[in-house]
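Explain this one:

_____
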Amino acid sequence: MVRIRLRRVGKKKRPSYRVIVADSRSPRDGRFIEAVGHYDPLTEPTTINLKADRIEYWLSVGAQPTDTVRKLIKRAGIGEQPAAEQAVPEQS
């Protein structure tokens, strides 16, 4: 299965992360398919840069985000529909 997950980069005790698409069997910092953004939790406010079109593509073909990446995607507002499109029309 293909997962969208974090890959740790940066110095010791100064982590930053890349958001990557990788096979679920590959190690955390090992081989990956595509880098789709980065996340820096140490800045104030935290820095989240994601390629929305690529993340939407990978989600559409079945890639599963980890829980942490799912929260980052939600915080970045990717995949949300405007309120008018979310409303379900009533059937009469």
User: Anything to note?
Assistant: The chain has a mean pLDDT of 87. Residues 5 and 66 are 6 Å apart (CA to CA). The radius of gyration is 16 Å.
